[in-house]
Amino acid sequence: MYIVTAEEMYDMDHGAMNKVGIDGKLLMENAGRSIAASLKERVSKTYRILVLAGGGNNGGDGFVIARTLLDNDFDVTVVQVVPDEKIIGDALYHKQLFVCCGGNVTVMQTVDEVGPMISRVDIVIDAIAGIGMKGRLREPLASVVDVVNKKASYVLSVDIPSGLPANEGISDFYAVQANETLITGFPKQSAFLEHTAPYYGNWQVVSFGLPSVITSDGAHRYLWTEEQFRKTIPERGRYSHKGSHGRGLAVGGSAEMPGSITMTVHAALRTGAGLVTAATAKSAIPAVASQCMEATYLALGETNGRMNNELPIPFDNYDAIVMGMGMGRHHEARSHIRKALEEASCPLIVDADGLYHLKSLLASVKKRKSPVVLTPHPGEMAMLLDKSVPELLQKPFAYAKMAAEKYGVYIVLKGPFTIITTPDGQQTVTTTGNEGLAKGGSGDVLSGIILAMVLQDQPIMEALSNACFIHGKAADMLIADTHSVYDLLASDLLHGISKVYRTFV
Length: 505
Prior knowledge:
- By secondary structure, the chain is α/β, with parallel strands linked by helices.
- The protein has two domains: about 5-220, Rossmann fold (3-Layer(aba) Sandwich); about 245-505, Ribokinase (UDP-N-acetylmuramoyl-L-alanine:D-glutamate ligase, 3-Layer(aba) Sandwich), CATH 3.40.1190.
- The chain contains 18 helices and 19 strands.
- The strands form three sheets. The chain has a ten-stranded mixed sheet with strand order 8-19-18-17-16-15-14-9-10-11, sandwiched between helices.
- Helix 2 (about 25-40) packs across helix 3 (about 55-70) and helix 7 packs across helix 17 (about 460-480).
- The model has no long low-confidence stretch (mean pLDDT about 95).
């Protein structure tokens, strides 16, 4: 499923109309009927429903929804919040059809009229403004939205909460705070941004008849769902052996922070890696080995419990490498990152302290022939790009794409919506996971899952997307079963991995 900007969604609409020949009135009919069908399944006919219809396609959808609900004996009222001259084209056609079918449209004269009407109903359907809106809502619509936010008991937005931008990079807006949004066609970028996603409430996508042959040349973003996971997760052969599932290396940890590499190694083994070696400071090995008996160990030289560069690491002995967890930021650790870039001929995954060291080595990253995967959280990504965190979060898709293309790397930008980007700019988003993951060590577990997935027989992009799906889904299943978002620990995720496999594979 695509994730689109407003412009890309319009390209698809126009393609359906101009290339395939589907009338715009029919697309609007389909969209409105799909939303009404969703409502009919869940809403009692005793509920009073108010549709607030604006101009443009969003308002037209509102008239179709109102007519469909009216035909099914729902108590529905329509208030048109723009003057008659703003209702044109397909929206005007569907307004007239609604009236001809027995509906009544009240044209708002002043905003003061709207408040009492909202207070008398159970559901407000927000069809005021859609993805075509430019800039901040103007009066009187801004005041209408203010009344909705203050007085409505339940708000369902059509396609997008009115006033909310569809695209990233916009912070100046005032929008409806929806309880629920039924998105038509494809989810928009703003559904996956930290500062705009909360306005959607709970959301789902409804179809409105776009043919499968219609695509957008500019849309290279996809939602990675359970369906994609089931289709792409590699099967384990009946006659495979430990070498069939890869030999991985994890480099990191110290006497003070043995837990980070412990969770990475354990997660890689639990996810299905054939063989995993932990390279860490010698004094940290007993602590790690007590938790990971199935791993092997490579003792590195150390100074004050932290790894140094006295002993070389045989990077070419492995099929994939992850580095950085608990490594520390001292200069001797950086030399291991540099040597891995120069010597390893397999995929290299860099996380945590490794990203700090990598910043000074970015110029050499693009020279590597084998894949490099960076797994930053927003703070680390901002550090790599010399941006502020708020600046990065305004345009995470754009910044991740720019960095991936510039340095020829894969980027896993972690967050409530994890964005995975390839060196050629393709992007996927995973939405599994919950606030219970906001704890130290969660990223270390993800690094181990990524290592295991990269070791399997699948393209890197699929491996990264599946790893993020497993990580988040493990947290979701644990919260649904035995834990809460408060008590969930990173180490609990190790047991959640098996739940994911048993459920979906």
